[in-house]
Amino acid sequence: MIKRFFCMFSLISLTGILLVACRQTPLPFECTDAIGCVDIAPGQPIKLGVLQALSGGVAVIGSDQTRGIELALAMRDNQLLGHPIELQIEDERCTSEGGTIAAMKVVADPQAVAVIGTTCSGAATTAIKVISEAGLVMVSGANTAPSLTAIGGDQGVRLFRFLNDPKMYEQQWS
Fold this sequence. Notes:
Strand content: 15-25%
CATH superfamily: Response regulator
Radius of gyration: 25 Å
Number of domains: 1
Distance between the termini: 94 Å
Order of helices and strands: HEHEEHEHEEH
CATH architecture: 3-Layer(aba) Sandwich
Shape: elongated
CATH class: Alpha Beta
Number of strands: 6
CATH topology: Rossmann fold
Strand order of the largest sheet: 2-3-1-4-5-6
Number of helices: 5
């Protein structure tokens, strides 16, 4: 009985080892996206830059937008696809100089993958140049300057906004 059990156990073990040894290894991931891909190891955070006006005359708007981002993340347990989210929040001061400085701080971190912001279009105009040159993308819900996403504009700019161009409304209301 023991001999039969040992033979059966050995046969099952050998079959399992052969099945594991003969499986095909998965092909390595190859990025074919024109913008590029991000490789984040399991358990590592997704780092997002946040550029908002946190000082000056429109600080209340930038603070509200920042809190909105934090609230949206809290509703998802500060995670995306099993990765914790880390925000790097910078004050763009609603100025072109502030936009540049804030963007430079974010892109200095090689682990940053994208930027949310800005509060002001003037800050976005300079920040997006720094962000695009670093290969990152910025998503904005506040910028209204038509030049930021004008057709025929700078094709290297990586700005996506979900607030319509005000010129569109002018044409509709005329």
